[in-house]
From TrEMBL:
It comes from the Eukaryota. GO terms for cellular component: membrane raft. GO terms for biological process: innate immune response. InterPro entries: Glycoprotein. Keywords: Signal. This is Uncharacterized protein. Residues 1-16 form the signal peptide. Pfam families: Glycoprotein.
């Protein structure tokens, strides 16, 4: 009687980009099989959901290891950090609950299911952005740092603020939206990088490394960082309003994004500037507007604004340092865009 229902559920989980949303589970003690090749690891982010309900949903392996989602949600390496302890599955596993379908449908959290390769990678780390955390890679190597956010109280929802960034000059860092793996990346590339490889399509590319990264926010339920060697930063479940921000270093980079649910607004960043020296001001823009009337506008000092009304990858550079830079949009509700800006000033 239940076989067709279970088969459909398995199909959805298999092609669910490694995320199982709790509101898709079936209750009343129906087994929800996890159709993933072992070994793999499970991580839970469910900040809006009550521990009382999560305590009634269980992961059960074929080896008779059982753990509630409440325990998985709270399985932190340190109570002062969001660094999650993986639940390792070496055979098969399923999810089961005596909650009703209606109770499960009210849940907002999700389970992140890794691949076998990720489960076996000691430098693959997963964090729940439900509290302040200090992120640090301790030694050289290739790291993948995944961040889960089910915080709906920030505006925009799922916001995470990154600050106090420190990075060695032999380290390469890229930030991506979504889940690491074989899935197609949004916009086909990273949204933020340090160093920046500038104008790679022309064959005369330059590499700009920035010793400083400005405080910024990301508003995604899940994003990840690929890093080589040592990096350090703070992350917290808040939103930082970049409008009115003043850069804190002469050679620096930062990031701004507008989500699909945000109304258009103007953002201005004041640039720390030593007028005795010249330099570069630039930006990389990605975006998708909902209609042909939508525009993303960059105001760079006295320069004419640059706009786009469809998905783009756009690079802009000015061989001078301006007092401020600004960006805004029109007819952009339902659209989104991402800007990495940078300033390189020749200070002896």
């Amino acid at each position: 009687m239940f076989a067709p229902l279970i088969f459909i559920l398995l199909f959805q989980l298999t092609h669910g980009q490694q995320l199982i949303y709790l509101n898709t589970l079936k209750g009343d003690n129906i087994e929800n099989g996890i159709n993933q090749t072992a070994p793999y690891s499970l991580f839970v982010s469910a900040q809006p959901d009550s521990d009382e309900l999560l305590a009634k949903i269980f992961v059960k392996t074929s080896g008779n290891v059982t753990m509630s989602l409440q325990d998985l949600k709270n399985a932190k390496e340190d109570e002062n950090s969001g660094f999650l302890t993986p639940f390792s599955v070496t055979s098969t596993a399923s999810l089961i609950s005596n909650l009703t379908d209606e109770q499960l449908e009210s849940l907002k959290g999700f389970i992140y299911v890794t691949s076998s390769e990720q489960a076996n990678d000691k430098n693959f780390r997963v964090y729940d952005v439900d509290r302040f955390s200090i992120i640090e890679t301790e030694h050289s190597g290739n790291y993948t740092l995944v961040f889960l956010s089910t915080n709906l109280e920030t505006n925009p929802a799922h916001s995470s603020t990154i600050s106090h960034w420190q990075q060695q000059n032999d380290s390469v860092v890229n930030i991506y939206r979504g889940i690491p793996g074989n899935r197609k990346r949004f916009y086909g590339s990273h949204l933020f990088s340090n160093p920046i490889v500038w104008d790679p399509k022309r064959g005369d590319s330059k590499i700009f490394f920035f010793p400083n990264v400005e405080k910024f926010s990301l508003s995604f339920p899940i994003f990840y960082i690929k890093a080589t060697n040592e990096i350090f930063f703070h992350i917290r479940p808040t939103y930082y309003n970049l409008d009115g921000h003043q850069t804190v270093a002469y050679n620096t980079t930062g990031f701004y994004m507008k989500t699909k649910t945000e109304q258009p607004r103007d953002v201005t960043v004041t640039i720390l500037n030593n007028k005795k020296y010249n330099g570069l001001t630039g930006a990389i823009l990605y975006g998708m507007m909902p209609t042909d009337e939508g525009e993303i506008i960059l105001h760079w000092g006295s320069f004419n604004p640059t706009s786009a009304n469809k998905e783009i990858v756009y690079q802009f550079i000015d061989h001078s340092i301006r007092e401020n830079l600004s960006f805004s949009s029109v007819e952009s509700f339902g659209g989104e865009f991402f800007i990495q800006y940078f300033i390189l000033q020749k200070i002896p």
